[in-house]
Amino acid sequence: MSFTAKNLILGLAAMAFSLTAAAADANKMLADRHAARGVPCQACHTQMPPKAPSNEACAACHGGYAQLAKRTAKKDINPHDSHVEDPSCNQCHSGHKKPRLLCDQCHEFTDIKVP
User: Fold this and answer.
1) Which of 53, 66, 60 is nearest to 93 (CA)?
2) What is the pLDDT of residues 20-56, one digit of tens each?
3) CA dist., res. 48 & res. 46, Å (int)
4) Which of 3, 6, 8, 32 is at 20 to 30 A from 80, Cα to Cα?
5) CB neighbours (10 Å) of residue 92?
6) Would you state the pLDDT for residue 19?
7) Rounded CA separation 48/88 (Å)
8) Are 79 and 112 in contact (CB under 8 A)?
9) What is the mean pLDDT of the chain?
10) What domains can you pick out in the chain, each with its CATH number?
11) How far is residue 9's CA from residue 11's CA, in Å, rounded to a whole number?
């Protein structure tokens, strides 16, 4: 095998590995993403036995809906600036299950990715 062919094969293998790693990271649950950043379970689960985090627990780190709406304002559709009054963070975000977009109960927003 020539030097150029080896480089091509190694480059393709490295690219495939990096795409697989990126896809695996995107598929992590929200709890895994928090843990990777050093956030302990108790930061979200403030009650024992653990229950779904309250909006207040989420807001302690992420800010309230007004702050989140500003952070996501450049999106075509801003999920944090909604006509739904006082939604629970847990209606879209789930620490230990696949997330689901509350908006999709009535709409079909295929370009919104929920962590």
Assistant:
1) 53
2) 444 455 568 999 999 999 999 999 999 889 999 999 9
3) 7
4) 32
5) 19
6) 47
7) 20
8) yes
9) 85
10) 31-105 (1.10.1130.10)
11) 5
